[in-house]
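[Solved] Which block belongs to which protein?

Original post:
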Amino acid sequence: MYGFALKGKWLIATIAVALIAFTFVNLGLWQLRRLDWRRENNARILARRELPPTSLQELVGEPSSDIEYRRVTAKGVYDTQDELVLFGRPNPGGLQGSHVLTPLVTPDGNAIIVDRGWVPLSMAEPPIADSLPPEGKVNVSGILLPPESEGGTDAPAGGKVKSVDLDQISAALGRPVMPVFLMLNLQDPPQPGEFPVPAEVPELTQGPHFSYALQWFLFTVIGLVGYGALVRREALDRKKRGGGPAPASEELQVAD
């Protein structure tokens, strides 16, 4: 019923729309692949959590990727002089505060950073007198977690860190620490005071990947439908004008 040849700016616009649609679709597919990876990783983490607790000493020297999320028990002595505050961590109720990071020196001389739990913001200067651990040997149990960030070498300012960067912590302590840290669950002897309160293991989620994928696919549909409507309107306008010749830069050819 009407037609126009794709030339000039309309040809360029069509190619541009096709490239954008191709990009958006691939971004959506990439988010779906990320979702699959997250689900597989969550399943791996849950499988490791379900393994029986093992002694930390048996895992020393193993690749960190093989021992992350394992439940362990350990014996040692807390080094409170090298204690750090992991600043800005709310408790499950939403109250602002921090976590206390204390090295635990095991009988074989190795050191592992232990996240002993949450304290209020008022307890901000390590070592925190009101949350000191028991003196002497302790037995602890918990779950091994990977560092939250890596590669830092600057000394913590005022004994405070914003993330569990074991490279940074090791440099600050002047000695190596294990490539994972322990989130404390139980301790014997128990904590003498009210704080710190043992923190909860981070919840496993699938992340926003599925919703992001839907957004990219929706953008693709909106763009294609919108461009198709624009082309159709141009064709109808051309028909109403009597189908006269258009400038070469705008000449199109669409059949309907």
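(Second protein starts here: sequence line, then its structure tokens.)
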Amino acid sequence: MALSSDSTCTNHLYSSQDGYETLHLEKVDPPPPPHSVAEVLDKNSCVFPQWMQGKWEGLSIKGDEFTYRDEANFVTYKGKCLQSVDESEQSGLKFLLYLQTDCGTPTFNCALFQRRDTNIMEFQLGKFQLSTPFTIAAS
């Protein structure tokens, strides 16, 4: 495609392929499809630490499975641990989670767990939710 040197569409424009400025279009192969959720779940998993296992107030953890009932927003999240991000118990344990609501909405979230006492755990679920998979290291 050729363009003229000004808005007249005649100056320095000789044909549709020869002019003041020429643009060439070429086919670009599409990027590979993103990983499917099933592939991400198959390739990545982690197990929550032993001290986190069991039933807590509004939260249940068993192996790599996670269930959280958000009473304030009337939402239940169920899913699994995909990757341990930080294992420093000083600043809290951070995990990447794949979660699904009872309505079927899938998300990827970060979560922070801090052991406060033998029977007290602080838990924070990341508000920012990724609705599409992204590259994470295989464990």
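Accepted answer:
You had them paired correctly. Confirming on the second one: The longest strand covers residues 75-86.
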